[in-house]
Amino acid sequence: ITQAQIIRLLQEIQKEKGLAYLFITHDLELARLFCRRIYRLVDGKLQEMLTVRSAS
Fold this sequence. Notes:
Layout: H1 3-17, H2 28-34, E1 37-42, E2 45-51
Antiparallel strand pairs: 1-2
């Protein structure tokens, strides 16, 4: 199973169930693909909130 398959599965479940996820990663490119909002923390403190445009 690949990372892309897991992300697609999570997105399908999210859409079907109307879920929100707390997705923690160091991979900002992956976060941009998977998330609508990104909160960046530095030393445990909120530094910025980014809004990602929807691809659809």
